[in-house]
Amino acid sequence: MLYTTDQGSGTEILWIHGYPLSSRIFAKQLEIPGVRHIVPDLPGFGRSATPDHDMTVDDYARALLKLLGERKVQRAYVAGLSMGGYIALALARLVPERMRGLILIDTKETADTPEARQGRYESVEKVKSAGVRPVVDAMLPKMLMPSAPLSLVEEVRAIMTSSTAAGVMTALKAMAERPDSTALLPHLDMRTLVIVGDGDTITPPADAARMAAAIPNAKLVTIESAAHLSNMEKPDEFNKAVQLFVT
Ligand code: MLT
């Protein structure tokens, strides 16, 4: 069972968080009116149980599909941030008929380079010996703009450190082995919104522009003065873009 916030009524949006984060990153998105927000914690993150086996990106997608079934949701918009975007693309490949549309947030379609993949496995070893702290310390500065208020930085730190070591290691291996979705993009036959913070250095605006150009009729929105967590950093601008898209 995935710990899930299921709130509001209207068009369904399944929000998939990034790594190493939790459903709490979408707290401000719950304010978007006219929407049933379905916001799970992925296995090993937030309040969901830790996986006791390796998972692929497709396994995460299937766990979310099961959740939609349990919640009696036939079709939903699927909104994924970063690693959540990798999983959203897996859902678009596996079960496009269950999707009203796709919202790709600060993410990319490409697989890891060999160097990035090697870095993931080095991180797995670090987490094994030292816990999630080194991963959090290395990633936190890239999540938000350097000018982000300290309270927001501390909120993100708290969310990241709530991740379990097993959850983080499982996600690292899944991301390292994820497929390249480049070939899928021109075949996506669904409404698509691509959102990116103009200061995102993890999945920069060039990634978003490339995806939007490859997906038929995709809409691209760039959020100013926001980094990787554009939804947390500029919730008003972000929510307006999503609301316009889904209602
Ligand atoms: C994320 O925010 O989910 C991660 O930065 C994704 C990644 O490491 O590729």
In words, what does this structure look like?
By secondary structure, the chain is an alpha/beta fold. Helices cover 42% and strands 17% of the residues. The chain has helices spanning 57-70, 83-94, 114-130, 133-143, 150-161, 165-176, 205-214, 230-233, 235-246; strands at 4-7, 11-16, 35-40, 76-81, 99-105, 191-197, 219-223. A 7-stranded mixed beta sheet has the order 1-3-2-4-5-6-7, sandwiched between helices. Helix 1 packs across helix 2, helix 3 runs antiparallel to helix 6 (165-176) and helix 4 packs antiparallel against helix 5 (150-161). The radius of gyration is 16 Å and the shape is globular. Residues 18-19, 82-83, 175, 202, 228 line the site of D-malate.
Which sheet architecture does the biggest sheet show? 7 strands, mixed
What is the number of strand segments? 7
User: What does the radius of gyration come to?
Assistant: 16 Å
Enumerate the strands of the largest sheet in spatial order, edge to edge or round the barrel: 1-3-2-4-5-6-7
The distinct ligands, each listed once, are: D-malate
Unreliable segments (pLDDT under 50, ≥5 consecutive)?
A: none
Percentage beta strand? 15-25%
Shape: globular
Mean pLDDT: 97
The arrangement of helices and strands along the chain is EEEHEHEHHHHEHEHH
User: What fraction, in percent, of the residue positions are helical?
Assistant: 40-55%
